[in-house]
Amino acid sequence: MADIIKLLPDHVANQIAAGEVVQRPASVVKELLENALDAGASEITLVIKEAGKILVQVIDNGMGMSNADARLCFERHATSKITSAEDLFSLHTKGFRGEALASIAAIAHVELKTRTETSEVGTKISIEGSQVIEQESVVSLTGTTISVKNLFYNIPARRNFLKSNTVETRHIIDEFHRVVLAHPQVSFTMLANGSDVFKLPESNLRQRIVNVFGAKSNEKLVPVSEETEIIKINGFVLKPDFAKKGRGGQFFFVNNRFIKSPYLHHAVLSAFEGLIKEGTTPGYFLFLDVDPKSIDINIHPTKTEIKFDDEQALYAILRSTIKHSLGQFSIGPVLDFNREAELDTPYDYNKKSPVAPIIDVDKEFNPFQKESTKGRGAVPYQKEKGASWESLYVGLNEGFGSVPRSANESANSVEMHFESDEVTGTLFDDESEAAGQTTFQLQKKYIISPIKSGLMIIHQHLAHQRVLYEELLKNITVQEAVSQQLLFPLCFNLAKPDVEILKKIQEQLEHTGFVFAALKDDIVEIEGIPVTVAESQIEKILEQLINDIREEVPDAGFSQNDLLAKSMAKSMAIKTGVSLSREEREHLVNQLFACKEPSFAPNNRAVLITMDVNDFDKKFL
After folding, report:
1. CA-to-CA separations, 614 to 437, 452, 619, in angstroms, rounded
2. Contact, 159 vs 152, CB < 8 A?
3. Which positions ≥6 away from 181 have C-beta within 8 Å?
4. Alpha carbons within 13 A on the beta-carbon side of 505
5. Distance (Å, rounded) from C-alpha 62 to C-alpha 39?
6. Distance between start and end Cα atoms, the chain
């Protein structure tokens, strides 16, 4: 029998490795940024075009590479980070496998320019599909510039699985966030299609968070700090008021390396227990420093999962640390038996001895006596004899041309009229309302309406979603929405990527009734809103819309309008738990059955169900 096991060629092996390391353009960004940090760079610039599909370029001012190192770095398992297997358990660098550049070079066109500080000239290497096309000496600055072009050019199937440019850019920004937050002492710049996205100077952690996520994030941060024998914790958690329904804004860093840990995430959730609504997730930026020998990083190709030696101890320490910080800064409920500083003796009275107050009482004072005006002393107080109550009507008609009459005559002859209409708490009579009522509300969630065959049960939140969805979609398409002008414009501070998202859908939002006075950098100013939206809902609507677009947004056309209408309808719809009057219920039902598809919500959930009378009869058999 012939031998059937063969060694794979290097270019095939590299492409297989690339499938583990390089999943999308964001993976390339992560590997190149980490290499720049390991090179000791203090200034790093990231340039992308077409969401990284056309170009991903990283420029750093690190130590650079020699001519031989520049050629060797593209070989598999070539690394300067480790020399033995024992080094895997004392890692202090980002990369260590030596597969990143080899994997990237196997599926893209790569150009490398590098120079060390002691070299007079630099080195330029061009590689296409693991094949070295060119290597020469060039003039370059100290550091390294690496350009990755035409990603997945030789694997079209992988390229077809990439999402839209908006989604891929979102993934790149997420990776960029994870790197820049871990290294606030390094200056970062990011450019996308020729425009600045981020320009982050050297700063501390709080300033870096504010620079990345907007000025408004500063008021949300609660400091967290703790140091024990096995772990050192520092960073920030967001106040419970800013917990969101979707995931996002959760960052764990272990030894300045971003990780994902559902176990530690659960510790954070348990610390916030009772402070946030069910189904919401708090945000946090937590940095854990542990002994490198107590963790294993080499368990996942992307190095985002870590195995801890004693997870239970870390869980308990992290949970108690966050609870302590929330209580220390008066965020969570605590029992504080310490003295209040406001109750201390004022500084001016600190050294003064207490003096008993002097009480002066007038023993001759009598409230039932009044002083005589003629100096004859006090006389007993006597109530003046007044006329009878009929005297109140004396002169009632004076001033109207009539002659004054006596008190008795006025009381007997004047006819008084008083309003006697009964004031009730409802606009309509209870009996008439009950007689003509055709809808009822159950648990402030469902609308029940009798029909000829039985009952119809309508989910009020989903029904209102359907009504708003078709109305918004019509307004976006026909461009006939009505806007209400605000007396004072609304101003919001958002992260720059979020503002960029709003810029891309600004035209569609204006068709729904929004009027933007300013939309630049990290500032959003709104001077007009749709007539059906309350002013207090605007911020939540925009946040929900941005979160939905982050997940998936089509490039253009009707699909994008559809997603926009769905997101806004979900935010604006009547929530479960809202009590509706009879007129509101009937109006909603009438609007629902005026829709093109009243039976299903925009997310294809059933809006209503019907129950036949025969179904009720069977229950009583």
Report:
1. 23, 12, 9
2. yes
3. 205, 208, 209, 212, 251, 253, 285
4. 31
5. 5
6. 76
Please enumerate in sequence order all residues whose Cβ is within 8 A of that of 503, keeping only pairs 6 or more positions apart, or say none: 519
**Under 8 Å between Cβ of 127 and 149:** no
Q: Among 273, 303, 269, 306, which Cα is nearest to 284's?
A: 269
DSSP letter string over 447-516?
EEEEETTEEEEEEHHHHHHHHHHHHHHHHHHH----EEEEEEEEEEE--HHHHHHHHHTHHHHHHHT-EE
Question: Residue-wise over 168-189: b if at least 16 C-beta within 10 A, else e?
Answer: bbbbbbbbbbbbbbbbbebbbb
Amino acid of residue 178: R
Closest by CA position to 311, among listed 245, 239, 262 = 262
Structure tokens at 216: 């408004």
- pTM higher than the cut 0.90: no
Per the document, the length of the chain is 621
CB 183 within 8 A of CB 37: yes
From the CA atom positions of the chain, what is the Rg in Å?
Answer: 37
Long-range pairs for 516-524: beta carbons < 8 A, 24 or more residues apart: 517/489, 521/496, 522/214, 522/215, 522/493, 522/494, 522/495, 522/496, 523/491, 523/492, 523/493, 523/494, 523/499, 524/491, 524/492, 524/493, 524/494, 524/499
List the structure tokens of 140.
């370059």
Residue given tokens 């063969």 in the structure block: 6
Torsion, Cα of 145, 150, 152, 156 (10° steps):
180
Angstrom distance (rounded) from CA 616 to CA 450? 13
Model confidence pLDDT, tens digit, residues 568-617: 888 888 888 888 888 888 899 999 989 988 899 888 889 999 888 888 88
Please give the C-alpha separations between residue 206 and each of 210, 267, 572, in angstroms, as whole numbers: 6, 23, 34
pLDDT digit string, tens, across residues 25-84 = 998 999 899 889 988 899 999 999 999 999 999 999 998 888 888 888 888 766 665 555
> Residues 432-448: pLDDT tens digits?
444 455 788 888 899 99
For residues 187 and 517, give the distance between their C-alpha atoms in angstroms, rounded to a whole number.
32
Residues 452-464: tens digit of each pLDDT: 888 889 999 999 9
What token pair was written down for 143? 């550091």
Asked whether residue 409 carries a pLDDT value surpassing 60, the answer given is no
- Provide the pairing of β-strand 43-49 with 187-192: parallel
Please name each of the domains of the chain with its CATH number.
10-200 (3.30.565.10), 208-328 (3.30.230.10), 440-609 (3.30.1370.100)
Residue 4 has pLDDT above 80, yes or no: no
